[in-house]
Structures are given as C-alpha cells and as structure tokens.
Amino acid sequence: MQRPYNFSAGPATMPAEVLAQAADEMLDWPDASGKRCGMGVMEMSHRGKEFQSIYDRTEADLRELLAVPANFKILFMQGGGLAENAIVPLNLSALRAAQGGQGHVDFVLTGSWSEKSHKEAGKYCQTAVAASGKADGFTAIPAASSWQLSDQASYVHLCTNETINGIEFQTLPDLKALGSKAELVIDFSSHVASRPVDWSKVGLAFGGAQKNLGPAGVTLVVVREDLLGHALPVCPSAFDYKTVADNGSMYNTPPTYSIYMAGLVFQWLKRQGGVAAMEARNIAKAELLYEAIDASGFYINGVARNARSRMNIPFFLRNETLNDAFLAGAKAAGLLQLKGHKSVGGMRASIYNAMPLGGVQALVAYMREFERTHG
Ligand SMILES: *Cc1c(COP(=O)(O)O)cnc(C)c1O
After folding, report:
1. 253 is in an annotated binding site
2. What angle do CA 120, 125, 129 make, to 5 degrees?
3. CATH for 274-374?
4. How far is the CA of 84 from the centre of ligand 1 (A)?
5. Which residue, judged by its Cα, is nearest atom 4 of ligand 1?
6. In the chain, which residues fall in CATH 3.40.640.10?
C-alpha cells in the first residue's frame, strides 16, 4: 500500500517503518534481545528498568546523531517550543545580571517564531531587538555584522529555522567574534537533525519533537552544563533545567511514549546514515522544489536565496484564485496538507527528514501538470 505524501508543518509525517515497528510493539514491548515483557510502553513505570533502557538508548542515540559534546546535557521536557519561550528566560536571563538585578536578552527577529519568543521573554527580563527582518516582510536574515548587540545581554535568541516564513540560518553566528559575551540560544524545533549543529557556538538549543523527531509531547533541550543553576527564584521546579538534569529528565513523569517514539526515529536516522546523510538528502529535496518554483512563471517564493529553508518551503500561485483548485487536485493526487500558514496564505511544503525524495518528485510533477492545465 502506497501512503499519501504528507507535507504538514507539524505534527508531521513519520517514517512508515517507525510507525510499523511501534504498531508491532504496541501490546508487548520487546527488549534489545527480542524478549517480550508483557507490557506496552505506555503502561510501563518510568522508574522501571524497561523504560529506563528505552530512555538511555534514546539519549545515547541522539547524542551520537547530533554529536553533542560531553559537557552538554540532553533534557527531555514537556510544554513544547512555546513553553521554552518562557522557560529559557526563566533559567538563563539572569546569567550575566548584577546581583538581584534584571537580566537582559537580545533577540534577532527573522519571522513569526522569533517574534513570539521575544514577546514572551519580555515577561521575565529586559529584552532588546538586535536586528529585525520585519521591514522586508521577513524575506531575508539581517547580516550579523549589522546586529546591535547589547553589552549586558545574558544570551542572544535566534530561531534558526522559521517554520512559517521559510527562512533558515545556513551558518550560526559566532557571537564572540561579534564582540559579545552573551550565550547563543537557538530554537531549532523545525530543523533539528536535518543538518549538523556547531556546538562550539551554542549555549542552549531547544525544539519541540513534532517536526523532525517524532510525535508531539516531548521537547528537546540541549544545554551546556555551566549554564545550569542560574534560574530565577520564581522558575517552576519542573522547568528548572538543573532540577531536570539532576534527575535525568525524570523529576516528574516524562512523556514516556513520545520519548520512545523519538527513540525509534533516532534508530531509523542511524540506519539512514545519520545526520550527514540526511543533510545531503535534504539539500537535494529542497533544490528540486526551489528549482521547480523558480523555473516557472506560475509559482513564486520570495525568500532571499541564501536564507531559504530546506525544511519549510512556502510558495504562492501568482493567480491566487486557483488556490482551492490546486489544493483539491493535490489531495486527489495523494499530496496532503499543502495549505500555507494562515498568517501568510498560499502554500507551504514541509519536507522534513521523513519526507522521501519521491514525495518531492511527486509534488513537483503535480505542480508542473497543474501549471500546464491552468497556466
Ligand atoms: C512548532 C514550533 C514551535 C512551537 O512548538 P509547540 O510545540 O507548538 O509549542 C516553536 N518554534 C518553532 C520554530 C516551531 O516550528
């Protein structure tokens, strides 16, 4: 049976192999030696040896896939990317604040998600906008050399892949080289594990799982150890990174099933050749779709070429009265969830790790045929 291709921005398509394995293990989970334990993963205590073994393997596989250095902690939390917009400032905004004084944080605004993060952080600290792409309608990344970084900032927040606007940082800025003492915090929700991360430039990275890692419900935080232990007194204990780290992400009950599913995705990623292999495939997929858009006079993507996302590709029909027909035809052709985000309209194809090249080829073929019959 050929499943349709699902271009949803998140929750998003999962590898079929992973779903089949989860189905097989649903009622009776087998350990690494194949021995069944009589319980499904949802029914296990998070304190039991079965779930602990799932957790340990999941963490180790992720550390290997993302080449996370030993001095970084990997935390599996709840609340999603949006909760992290509060949890990060609650933990890190006071890093460089004077005793008892308010912390300062800089934001580079490149789209909807960094704007959201900026707004939320303002509840907990002094925020400043170091640069913004809003005047250009978020179609480019302001050059790092133009950022107005403040002296006292504890960290600089970036959203390294703007899921809605289709903008992606192709390299991370080196804050030290820019004369800043701040840590770099990145929201990598929608491109984590699609490309390597240069951890030498990063203090903390966070991301919800439901784009590239697995189902909704678990949020990944990777944080350098020396940044732990600086939370504001009002920070909820369950959201204090040090408490979470000291308890191996089990200060309270973690989202066990989502962690298990993410673990199956990590095993799948390793079978695919790891993050470097995924990156090569993601480049090929994105090039195919952008080339098809740029070569046509019918479709348009307005993002600067050096800032285009490999993961989320918004595009518009020049004749927007054809939008409904385009979407209906796509659905009939087995190409699902291509409608753009309500704030920007048009179309958006999210082509995360789990989207095969064949899915993008099918989309491009459909787009050409639609243009031929409606152009
Ligand atoms: C989806 C997304 C979020 C929000 O995640 P939730 O799990 O809905 O809170 C945050 N940042 C980015 C970049 C995202 O793509």
Report:
1. yes
2. 70
3. 3.90.1150.10
4. 9
5. 81
6. 17-271
Distance CA 76, CA 313 (A): 28
| Ligand-binding site membership of 252 (annotated) | yes
pLDDT digits (tens, 9 = 90+) for 253-266: 999 999 999 999 99
* Nearest residue by C-alpha to atom 3 in ligand 1: 81
Q: Assign domain 17-271 to its CATH architecture.
A: 3-Layer(aba) Sandwich (3.40)
Q: What is the pTM of this model?
A: 0.98
User: In testing the pocket of ligand 1, which one of 190, 350, 352 has its CB within 8 Å of the most ligand atoms?
Assistant: 190
- Write out pLDDT tens, residues 132-183: 999 999 999 999 999 999 999 999 999 999 999 999 999 999 999 999 999 9
Task: Determine the Cα–Cα distance for residues 152 and 155; give it in Å rounded to an integer.
Answer: 9
Q: At 228, is the secondary structure helix, strand, or coil?
A: coil
Residue ranges, comma separated, of all CATH 3.90.1150.10 domains in the chain are 274-374
User: Of these residues, 187, 240, 242, 339, which one is catalytic?
Assistant: 187
The residue count for the chain = 375
